[in-house]
Amino acid sequence: MKTLKTKATSLMLLLPILLLHAQGELKSVDGYSPQIGIMVSMLEDLKDRITEQVKDLDQSSVDFLYDADANSIGSLIMHLVSTESYYQVATLEDREWTEDEQERFGIAGELNEKVKSKLRDKPIQRYLDLWEEVREKTLKELKTKDDAWFASNLEEGLNYHYIWYHVMEHSANHMGQIATIKNRLPK
User: Fold this and answer.
1) What distance lies between CA 72 and its chain's CA centroid?
2) Residue 155, SS3 per DSSP
3) For 121-149, how does the pLDDT look when each residue is reduced to its tens digit (9 = 90+)?
4) Which residues pair with 155 in a beta bridge?
5) Cα dihedral value 29, 94, 173, 58, nearest 10
6) Checking CA distances to 108, which of 7, 38, 71, 76 falls within 20 to 30 Å?
7) What 3-state DSSP class applies to 22?
8) Are 88 and 134 in contact, with CB atoms under 8 Å apart?
9) Residues 143, 135: contact at Cβ < 8 Å?
C-alpha cells in the first residue's frame, strides 16, 4: 500500500498535466471510429503542446542552432509537417506527393545541411500554418476510415495503426528536442 506521502507526491507531479490539459484519460474523438478517434486525440494533444511551446518565439529563437550538428526549432516543426503530409497521402489517399506537395511539404523529409539552410528566416507562424493545413486534411481523411481499415495491413507486418502511431511518436520525440533547444536559447 502506498503511503500518504507517496500518494501526495504522485498527485503533485501529475496535477500540472491534468490541469493543463483538463483531462487525465484518452477518449475517442466524436466523428471517428473508436480506435482512430483515440489516435486523433493523441495527435491533437501533441500538436497543441508543441504549438504552445513555440508559438511566441522570435525569429532568432526559431532559427537558433546550439551547435553545428543541431536542428533549429523551425526545421523540426517543418520536419513534423513533412512527415505527417507524407504519411497522409501515402496511407489515406494511396498515392505519392504531387510536385506542388513535394515542394511545399517535402522539403524537410530529411534534415541535412542543404535543407537546414533553406529553413531559415521564416517566422514560426509559417511552419504552424503549414502544419495546421496538413492536419486539417489528415483529420478530414481519417473521418472516412474505420477501425477495420486502421487494423488492416499495408504490407505484411505493417498496419495503418502502426503508421499513425509512428507519426504520433515522431511528434513526441521532436517535442523533447524542441524543449531541449528552448532550454539552450541565449538569455
Assistant:
1) 16
2) strand
3) 999 999 999 999 999 999 999 999 999 99
4) 158
5) -90
6) 38
7) coil
8) yes
9) no
C-beta separation of 34 from 28 below 8 A: yes
- Contact between 39 and 165 under an 8 Å Cβ cutoff? The reply is yes
> At residue 51, what is the residue type?
T
Backbone angles phi, psi at 154, to 5 degrees: -75, -40
35/51 Cα distance (integer angstroms): 24
Interatomic CA distance for residues 99 and 107, integer angstroms? 11
The string of pLDDT tens digits covering residues 9-44 is 554 555 455 444 455 788 999 999 999 999 999 999
> Which residue reads 524543449 in cell numbers?
179
Rounded CA separation 52/44 (Å): 12
Which of 88, 52, 7 minimizes the C-alpha distance to 182? Answer: 52
Query: Hunting for cell 506521502 — which residue is that?
Result: 5
More confident residue, 110 or 185: 185
Amino acid, res. 168 = M
pLDDT tens, residue by residue, 35-79:
999 999 999 999 999 999 999 999 999 999 998 888 999 999 999
> What does the alpha-carbon distance between residue 139 and residue 36 come to, in Å, rounded to a whole number?
10
